[in-house]
Amino acid sequence: MEIKKINILNQNNNNLDEYKKISKYSKTEIIYNYKTSEIGLTKKEAEKRLEENGLNIVVKKEKKSRLQFLLESFNDKFIYILLFLAVVNYFLSDALGSYIIVGVAIISALIRYFQEYSVYKFNQELKSRIFTTTHVLRNNEEKEINTEQVVVGDVIRLNAGSLVPADLILIDSKDLFINQSTFTGENVPVEKNTTSNETDELFNINNICFMGSNVISGSGIGIVIKSGFNTYLGNMSKTVTKSKEKTNFEKGIDSITNMLIKYMVVVCIFVFVVYSLLRGNFLEGILFSLSVAVGITPSMLPMIVNVNLTRGTKVLAKKKTLVKNMNSIQNLGSIDVLCTDKTGTLTEDRIVLQRYLNVDGEEDESILEYAYLNSYFSTGLKNIVDRAIISYGEENKLNPILKKYKKIDEIPFDYERKRMSVVVEEKETNKYRMFTKGALEEIVNVCTKVKYKGKIVDLDNHIINQVEKTVKDLEEDGMQVIALASKREYPGVNIFNKDDEKNMVFIGLVAFLDPPKDDVKEMLTNLSNIGVKTKIITGDNQYTTNKICNLVGITNMSITLGKEVDELSDKELSKVVEKTDIFARMNPMQKMRIIKTLRENGHVVGYMGDGVNDSPSLKLADVGICVDTATDVAKEASDIILLEKDLEVVYDGVVEGRIVYGNITKYMKMALSSDFGDVFSLVISCIFLPFLPLIPIQLLIQDFLFEISQIAIPYDDVDKEFIIKPRKWDTKDLSGFMNVMGITSSVIDVLAFLVFWYLLGYNSNYETYFQTAWFVECLISESLIIHFVRTSKIPFIQSRANKKLTICTILTIIGSIIVPILLHNIDSFNFEILPPIYYLYVLGLLVIYAVLTEIVKRIYIKYKGNWL
Fold first, then answer.
1. Active site annotation includes 610
2. Calpha distance 658→244 (Å, rounded)
């Protein structure tokens, strides 16, 4: 036979004709042209191809050097303004002052550099721990490797739950159904097989699977024909930027940023006009308005947000939780409803086989043997039922029976049929035997006969009722039950399919026990204490679910079944989801509907799942949570990956999310109220004082020192009372808070102006003393405002800040006193050494400020209901 050659070097040709051409080649031609074999590539050849073609990725990994971060640290409007003022100061005043301004700029940039580079390094390390895997044949040995290591010519095994790791052509398949919604937008599974077909639609080609799709059910083997950026998905990524919908948190940050920009522009124009008209000096007006712009711009906002989120990510990583998207930490703190399956969450997730019964309700060794053969010979992912059966069989010395049989065929499990079948051949007789196991109702549906009292008889309602009673008794004891059926007919290889699961003989039951975890009752209580309601959404039956839920303290007797959900209107379901905590016999679409309804009711929903059927709900929920052992599809859809399936880990995540929210909110409310107060005070002073209360360089130094006090905000603690309530991101209250606290701050500033002018005599003849006096007083009060804002309690007495934040505050206060002393001999800075009596007045002002702030806080809480 003539073997047709394919130009595999030109992999960037992603048109329909090329894929259609490849699809028509035989297995022999594919193996020849891609220089591979059915047993896979050698390790050496795979490494060579990886070196030549690069990683199997469709998004370029952004790697940045220290130098890039250093340069970006100087790419900041605050730095630009400082350098501009340094140049102006150099020509209008003295060089020393300019050097100091440049020094301030460099120090500010270096603070940003060290913080952001630390964040970057941690995120890179975290990403290296979060990856998807695939099963590949190398040297006839099946290995699980990182999908990034897949190369052209690799032989890939696909099973239910697998992500297709690259564009590949099938050389073997069994009832393989693929979800291609990534490309088509349709969630309807598409069957793929090894035969080529005529089609004008790229995604309708029978024997080609595309990177980014996932396996719903069945199994297959394919050879990689394109990898990385040469795949269809990779080619799309070169030209299309996929935009992800912004979270509530991101929208809030954008809203604040836009508000601040508008506020800054209006204030700067106003200050410039007022100053220029009153003073008649346009150059000084420009410099002063630019300095005001720097002063009212919370330039630390990006750093505070990033460090807050990264700190939260680090804390959770130590607690066996990996965060894929840092913004999801804040969302995790917002959840007030957690939806989860019972298996592995409420229970130990290590089911143990307890009973193997025939239809008469008697222990029957043959039932155990049939279940063992079915589970042992099934390929693909071994679920917990298969693992329990195999483990029990090996413990009871069933291994020898494997020598009597040879596996011939199988129909893999899928979530629509809820069953799986294996065909074996008895070596002595060469006779076939088909064993099917699955959910009771699904097995009964494909059976016409039953082995009853040692005879094969018709399956009638009387026997079905007897079996259902046995099953119900087992389930009420907390057991999970599956049914078994058998058949001796087998149509042959490449003919056998799920349609052959009919006219079978019902033979028995196998029951398992998955005991509840010891600490789950306590953890459910802990979640409830912080405002998180736990709802169980499971595919299991209502009896087992109710038994387990009662054991762990979920006593809501109302259980809603999946079929009942289908009968409810959206309006009726919106009421049911509020009253019901247990949903049983739920399929994927019903789970999604519950999640959607809860969100429409105003809840922030976390969903915890690990199966293929959970992935739609994981995507739909506000926060998708899965375990590290979950299917690739589930991990891809999740925001949070747990290294241990435990509610305690979820509890820790929720608490950490609320701490992150609290510290970001602290900064925003502190920065906005402080900046608004300063600007309001500056505007008043421009109108009533014959000189500036602060010259531009003093404003900039003050802003720089103030930033030092803010560095430790991400590491601050929050009050226990703050954690017990879900925190949904909302920026509506910020402007009101800014006005209230800003005006309070300005009242103290005006009082300080009066003290300086009339009591200390810092009038027109002593303007430098006035400026130095306000520089110190304003900076100290600004440094202390974070301690008033950070808690609804009385600061320093009822609630104390973290040591790091306290140290930064102390350093800033010391800096505010020392800087004027160090720079008082330099004319351009207008600093003086203040007498001791001044500090007594400042102390009095700070006491008045503390009392006034606490009074305003109490009034604000009374009318608003909350502080942060």
1. no
2. 24
Q: Do the bridges between strand 352-358 and strand 208-209 make them parallel or antiparallel, or are there none, so unpaired?
A: unpaired
Task: Please report, for residues 76, 100, 238, 301, the alpha-carbon distance to residue 70 in angstroms, rounded to integers and kept in the order given.
Answer: 11, 20, 29, 19
395 Cβ neighbours under 8 A, 6+ residues apart: none
Structure tokens at 228: 């990385």
CA distance 601 to 595: 10
Neighbour tally for 828: CB within 10 Å? 19
| Alpha-helical regions (H) of 718-765 | 720-723, 734-754
Where is 218: in which H helix or E strand? Answer: strand 214-226
**Which helix (DSSP H) or strand (DSSP E) does residue 353 occupy?**
strand 352-358
What is the C-alpha separation between 165 and 8, in angstroms, rounded?
18
> What CA–CA distance (Å, rounded) separates 285 from 275?
6
Polymer length in residues for the chain: 868
How far apart, in whole angstroms, are the C-alpha atoms of residue 519 and residue 261? Answer: 50
Which tokens in the block code for residue 570?
């959206």
The mean per-residue pLDDT over the stretch 52-60 comes to 83
H or E element in which residue 849 lies: helix 836-864
Nearest-angstrom CA–CA distance, 278 and 286: 14
Q: Per the structure block, which two tokens stand in for 719?
A: 């009050």
**Rounded Cα gap, residues 288 and 276, in angstroms:** 10
CA 664, CA 297: separation in Å to the nearest integer? 16
Q: For residue range 504-561, what is the model confidence (pLDDT) as tens digits?
A: 999 999 999 888 887 888 888 899 999 999 999 988 788 888 888 888 888 766 889 9
Provide the pLDDT confidence category of residue 248 given band limits of 50, 70 and 90: low
Of these residues, 341, 364, 632, 675, which one is catalytic? 341
* Distance between CA atoms of residues 2 and 23, nearest Å: 17
Q: For 167-201, what is the HEC assignment?
A: EEEEEEEEEEEEECHHHHCCCCCEEECCCCCCCCC
Which distant-in-sequence residues (6+ apart) come within 8 Å of 458 by Cβ?
A: 448, 449, 450
Contact 295, 703 (CB under 8 A): yes
Specify the residue for token string 């891809």.
Answer: 636
CA distance 312 to 279: 50
Pull the structure tokens for residue 812. Answer: 């800033």
The one-letter amino acid code at 501 reads E
Whether the CB-CB separation of 802 and 715 falls below 8 Å is answered with yes
Q: Tell me how far apart the alpha carbons of residues 381 and 413 are, in angstroms, rounded to a whole number.
A: 10
Strand partners, 509: 357, 483
Enumerate the H helices of 438-561 as residue ranges. Answer: 440-445, 461-476, 520-529, 542-551
* Distance from C-alpha of 594 to C-alpha of 338, rounded to nearest angstrom: 12
Cβ–Cβ under 8 Å, residues 119 and 307: yes
In 3-state terms the chain splits into helix, strand, coil percentages (rounded to 5) of 55, 15, 30
Which uninterrupted H or E stretch holds 450? strand 447-452
Calpha distance 814→671 (Å, rounded): 20
Strand pairing partners for 133?
Answer: 146
pLDDT tens, residue by residue, 782-812: 899 899 999 999 999 999 999 999 999 999 9
725-742 burial, b for 16+ CB within 10 Å, e for fewer? ebbbbebeebeebbebbb
Cα separation, 444 vs 506, whole angstroms? 7
Q: Which two tokens stand for residue 730?
A: 């909302």
Q: Which two tokens stand for residue 187?
A: 């969630």
At 66, list the tokens: 């220290």
Token digits of residue 191: 């069957």
Q: What percent of the chain has pLDDT above 90?
A: 37
**CA Rg, the chain, in Å?**
35
- Within 54-150, residue ranges assigned H as helices are 66-74, 77-92, 95-129
- Rounded-to-integer distance, Cα 541 and Cα 468, Å: 12
Amino acid symbol at 713? I
480 - beta bridge partners? 512
